[in-house]
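From the methods appendix. Each design record in this collection lists the tokenized structure first, followed by the designed amino acid sequence. Records were kept in a plain field format so they could be parsed without special tools. The example shown here is representative of the layout used throughout.

RECORD:
FOLD TOKENS (345 positions):
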């Protein structure tokens, strides 16, 4: 049975959010909201092109960019993380909530004004400034979990911020964030994201708006339905021939004439991802075909979410959701639906 959550009624009512009944499977002492530091252990929910950091580094070693025309400060990476983390504490007050795992990429280097004319080889560390164009974070709520095919899935929350999606050369305007709530497969640290648990473009002007929008997303997410959808994937399989069709069609997809591609559902994985899926079909420690040439859709789903860990930060969550939509669509195609049938016919 899914250990669902019990929202904090007082806080939910304050935001005019509906309070739904839920079941607590195990109760633990509430974790206090404390200063965020280094995660106790690595969680490789995204692997390529990133550098793991902690909150202390973001707070103490990084500057915060501004909108250049009015010098208004942006919402910093650390404020984004803390806001979502605190929202989770308010809606899940009795649950264990882990420290966020944070990764960054695309470092932006600068100098303090006093060092503008110094040669590079004479720069001191105190003369340099940095910030990261892209940042992703994820934290688990391990007291809320379920098992699918023997894999423990912990409820997880996270987000992505990419300053390259903002116009920092203008005056301050709405800022864009990606926020999700879903499950992490502890066998492989793959993230499982559903439509109602993902906000692709959360547009806000302030930290308070970010807090309220995050809470609304968490409140609308149906964890029980998400688990049922994932568990159902075990009941359908692709033959080796159908898997080969899928790999071939996925590689053809990006080269289709525009009109033909627009007539098909979105498939956001590149050749590099598809190659990784094909290799993992034979070699993945947990989700390969094994001795049976058939592969069930749960394993196939994890091959795609595993390949997604090589994505750039700013496309990672979009592809996570696309993996869910693609494999669910293939499942419907096996039952006669035509929307995704092109990929396996």
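DESIGN:
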């Amino acid at each position: 049975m899914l250990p669902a959550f019990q929202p904090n009624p007082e806080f939910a009512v304050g935001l005019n959010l509906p309070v739904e009944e839920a079941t607590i499977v195990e109760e633990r002492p509430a974790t206090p909201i404390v200063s965020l530091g280094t995660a106790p252990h690595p969680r490789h929910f995204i692997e390529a092109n990133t550098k793991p950091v902690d909150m202390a580094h973001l707070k103490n070693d990084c500057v915060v960019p501004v909108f250049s025309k009015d010098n208004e400060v942006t919402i910093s990476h650390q404020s984004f993380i803390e806001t979502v983390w605190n929202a989770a504490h308010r809606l899940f007050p009795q649950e264990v909530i882990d420290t966020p795992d944070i990764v960054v990429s695309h470092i932006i280097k600068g100098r303090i004004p006093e060092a503008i004319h110094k040669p590079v080889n004479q720069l001191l560390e105190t003369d340099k400034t940095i910030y990261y164009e892209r940042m992703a974070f994820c934290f688990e709520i391990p007291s809320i979990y379920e098992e699918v095919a023997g894999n423990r899935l912990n409820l997880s929350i996270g987000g992505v911020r990419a300053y390259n999606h903002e116009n920092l050369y203008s005056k301050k305007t709405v800022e864009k964030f990606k926020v999700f709530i879903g499950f992490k497969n502890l066998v492989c640290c793959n993230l499982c994201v559903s439509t109602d648990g993902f906000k692709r473009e959360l547009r806000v002007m302030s930290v308070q708006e970010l807090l309220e929008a995050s809470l609304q997303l968490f409140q609308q997410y149906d964890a029980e339905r998400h688990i049922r959808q994932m568990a159902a994937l075990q009941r359908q399989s692709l033959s080796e021939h159908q898997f080969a069709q899928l790999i071939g069609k996925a590689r053809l997809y990006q080269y289709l004439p525009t009109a033909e591609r627009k007539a098909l559902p979105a498939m956001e994985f590149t050749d590099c991802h598809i190659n990784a899926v094909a290799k993992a079909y034979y070699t993945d420690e947990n989700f390969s075909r094994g001795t049976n040439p058939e592969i069930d859709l749960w394993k196939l789903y994890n091959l795609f979410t595993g390949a997604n860990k090589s994505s750039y930060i700013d496309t990672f969550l979009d592809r996570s959701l696309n993996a869910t939509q693609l494999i669910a669509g293939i499942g419907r195609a096996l039952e006669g639906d035509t929307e995704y049938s092109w990929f396996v016919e």
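APPENDIX NOTE: The radius of gyration is 22 Å.
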